[in-house]
Design a protein that fits this description.
Length: 175
């Protein structure tokens, strides 16, 4: 999918979410869905398989999101899958999240951590990233078991690696 088409879908999702009046909740639902999609081979295969009837692919989305997300969030994911762009869901949703953050005059920060962060930790992290980047930052946390300790944060094109693995590599280079 071209960058322009990804942006067009993200714009459409943003307009629909604004129209629903639940932009923040829809943003959270879609962000979680995109991370699940990226990390689950069976889900990715099921939603991108052109031989699987569209009704079955939509049923998979309903099974996964039905009780956990807003109906509007489920409908937006179904829209993209039904249009044949399931493989582009993470890129579309990531662009949507960036646009939603920009809408609130904030910069989006994707943070990977081995453990979930509570609201207080997320707030402190957003403030620290804001000081480091000079921007007002909104944090989205991805629990990633491959991160052994610490966090990896991406704000736009800036990556801040505060993991134990990265620190050990730095020490190794110094020695």
């Amino acid at each position: 999918m071209t960058r322009e088409r990804t942006a067009a879908y993200a714009d459409a999702l943003l307009a629909a979410a604004r129209g629903e009046g639940n932009l923040g909740d829809i943003e959270d639902d879609l962000f979680r869905f995109a991370r699940t999609f990226e990390s689950s081979d069976p889900l990715r295969i099921a939603l991108t398989d052109p031989t699987l009837p569209i009704e079955r692919r939509l049923a998979v989305i309903n099974e996964l999101m039905g009780g956990r997300g807003l109906a509007a969030s489920t409908a937006l994911v179904e829209l993209v899958v039904a249009a044949g762009h399931a493989g582009d869901l993470p890129a579309i949703i990531d662009r949507f999240v960036e646009l939603a953050a920009s809408d609130r005059q904030r910069e989006f920060a994707e943070v990977r951590s081995a453990l979930p962060l509570d609201a207080k930790q997320q707030k402190r992290l957003a403030e620290a990233l804001g000081r480091a980047t000079g921007k007002t930052v909104e944090v989205k946390v991805i629990v990633d078991p491959t991160v052994l300790g610490g966090i990896v944060a991406r704000v736009g094109d800036v990556v801040i690696d505060g993991t134990v693995r990265h620190r050990l590599e730095q020490l190794k280079e110094q020695l």
